[in-house]
Amino acid sequence: MRRAAARTPQATNVALPLSYIARNLWVRRLTTALTAGGMALVVFVFAAVLMLAAGLRATLVASGSVDNVLFIGKGAQTEVQSAVSREQAALIESLPQIARDSDGQARVSREVLVLNSLTKRATGTRSNVPIRGVLPAGWALRPQVELTAGRMFRPGSTEIVVGASVARQFVGVEIGRSLTFAQRQWLVVGLFDADNTAFDSEIWGDAEQMMQAFRRLNFSSVLAQMAAPEEFAALERAVAAEPRFTTEVRTERRFYEDQSRALATFITFLGVFLSVIFSLGAIIGASITMYASVATRTGEIGTLRALGFRRRAILLAFLLESLLLALVGGAIGLAAASFLQTITISTTNFSSFSELAFSFSLTPSIVINSVIFALVMGFVGGFLPAIKAARMQIVDALRAS
After folding, report:
1. Mean pLDDT over all residues of the chain?
2. What pLDDT score was predicted for residue 386?
3. Hey, how many other C-beta atoms are within 10 angstroms of the C-beta on 185?
4. What residues of the chain score a pLDDT lower than 50?
5. Count of beta carbons in the 10 Å neighbourhood of residue 226
6. Contact 226, 71 (CB under 8 A)
7. What local confidence, expressed as pLDDT, does residue 304 receive?
8. Cα–Cα distance, 133 to 233 (Å, whole number)
9. What is the pTM of this model?
10. Which of 22, 52, 142, 186 is the most exposed place for a label (fewest CB within 10 A)?
11. Cβ contacts of 267 within 8 Å, gap of 6 or more
């Protein structure tokens, strides 16, 4: 009798309409909301981590210009570790690939970078802040840096200007105040904004005064503008072929990309690992929700099978229901994560062991990856319940209703 009843309906390949699937989620509003909320939380954490790493990369990479190159000592990974002698700086200025102004002077900035600890407003703890000694050309080579208050420091003086992030996060850096470091008093005469790049987290002053105060014999780096960016390969060969050079050259953008790599990789790895752990709970929640849906709709499933819908149509319907649930949760999580873009945070840059401020950054790739992550959770959570629903025998399902 059971076999005869099972053969009665004419099987059809027609899929169940999406409106039917969405209606089932709406009928179980409370359960749907709780499960979607759990998925939203996981997606929020996942997106926030990726946004954090993307914001860090954007802040550092944007610090570099495609027109500029940076000379640092061979083997040095950061400017703090680097040493470039005055003789090396003179050789750099003589290279034909370096741009020159109307007076024939090379467009270069000999710079020194040191660290000094300041007290943070929020916590009262001390943290390292990069202090950069620059030449006047250093401003011209970085057009994103603009003075927003006060005035520029005078060359040859113990005056300094403070980046926007430093001004927000540290005490005692207001215009008119003095900072004591390297056994000197440095007067704050201006504030500058560097368009959310790494320079916002720095203090700038005169390079020669910084050299004297910190008893440095060598510069940390030499920043130079290329006559033509496409000549970088020729410049690299010229530096490698000249035995007197004890420096290496990189494009400024590549240098800052290298600076961001270690910390961004660490943040991404740790965050994705935690997100995967959290996602197990969301997947279990989705499975429980879908199993409950199957249990309460046994008669409905039997009716659908009796009407001629194939097993694959039932399987697809329940899978789509789980995926739609995950998509709702993913959208909520992404919407919440998008508000993080208004927040600026600071952390220690592993490369220089100094404070670096940056913002969360939501990119199209993060949106796509977060949606995929949510759909994977929905698929894994809904697969076994969908299999169970598809395997139900018509007679058994109708009897259980």
Report:
1. 84
2. 75
3. 9
4. 1-10
5. 22
6. no
7. 63
8. 28
9. 0.75
10. 22
11. 49, 52, 53, 56
